[in-house]
Design goal:
It holds the Pfam family Usp. Residues 29-101 form the UspA domain. There is one protein chain. This protein is α/β, with parallel strands linked by helices. The chain has a single domain (52-258), classed as Rossmann fold, CATH 3.40.50. It has helices at 2-10, 24-34, 53-63, 78-94, 125-139, 162-187, 192-195, 211-219, 235-239, 243-248, and strands at residues 14-19, 44-49, 68-72, 98-102, 114-118, 143-150, 199-206, 224-228, 254-258. The strands form two sheets. A seven-stranded mixed β-sheet has the order 3-4-9-8-5-6-7, sandwiched between helices. Strands 1-2 form a two-stranded parallel ribbon.
Length: 262
């Protein structure tokens, strides 16, 4: 149900992919679910494929020109680690499109009110922010917060007295102003219709990238967190966790990982 609503709001075709053997019983179950879809004019097709889930999903996204892959992720359940820990980590590195992880899909629509998007300094960030505005507009969100994660090492000053405390305070303010200026430049390119009736906030936070924004999204009870897709960096990528790993290990809310399609 949730996926069909998302496809409707985005004006997209919905492809349901079942990885596993096809049977009459499974087909009946799927058609029974589809009979309750709210938007009857939605274009829907069903595909049946066998193989390893991650390999099948990667191949299908590539061959079918998918724009958005949606996966369900159950929190605090055994399957949570299977979907988010095993498959999502591989897909976020290798898949050719954006990925949406849903941790709280519902039969009845729960309006999306607050979207949080990363504003870290990266060449892909303007694309992620523009997508966050598009999604906020499509889902009718009321607030969008752009979180500027600033690495703690940028303020690596030992606080020993009032003088050093003042230096840190001034440095933090300078870094905040720098980030705010960079974000304002990005906002100039956002279509005006996406800004209508949307409260826009910027928030600077200091700490470990990925972990900090995930914690922030949880604290403010965001309905959706939007992040850049992780970059492929070869062997080191498999040894050292990148920003997204901290979020995948404990999803604070629904997560949209944005990647430009080829």
């Amino acid at each position: 149900m949730e996926t069909s609503r998302i496809a409707h709001f985005f004006g997209a075709k919905l492809i349901l992919l079942h990885v596993g053997s096809k049977s009459d019983q499974k087909e009946r179950q799927i058609h029974e679910i589809l009979s309750h879809v709210e938007h009857k004019n939605l274009e829907i097709s069903i595909e049946w494929k066998t193989g390893k889930p991650d390999e099948v999903l990667l191949e299908t996204c590539q061959s079918s020109g998918i724009d958005l892959l949606i996966l369900g992720a159950l929190q605090h359940e055994n399957l949570y680690q299977f979907y988010v820990g095993s498959i999502a980590r591989k897909l976020t590195r290798k898949v050719c499109c954006s990925v949406l992880l849903l941790i709280k899909p519902s039969k009845e629509r729960v309006p999306c009110k607050h979207v949080v998007v990363n504003g870290l300094e990266d060449q892909e960030t303007p694309f992620a922010i523009s997508n966050a505005f598009y999604v906020s507009h499509a889902l009718g969100a009321k607030q969008l917060t752009i979180v500027e994660e600033i690495r703690q090492k940028e303020i690596a000053v030992n606080i020993e007295d009032d003088k050093s405390l003042k230096r840190v305070t001034i440095l933090k303010e300078k870094l905040k102003n720098r980030e705010d200026s960079r974000i304002r430049k990005i906002l100039k390119s956002i279509p005006k219709e996406y800004l209508k009736d949307l409260k826009i906030k910027t928030q600077s936070i200091f700490g470990k990238r990925g972990y900090s924004i995930g914690h922030y999204a949880e604290v403010v009870r965001a309905d959706l967190l939007v992040m850049n897709a992780p970059k492929k960096t070869g062997v080191l990528d498999r040894i050292f966790p990148h920003d997204i790993e901290y979020i995948l290990s404990d999803l604070p809310t629904d997560l949209l990982i944005v990647r430009k399609t080829n």
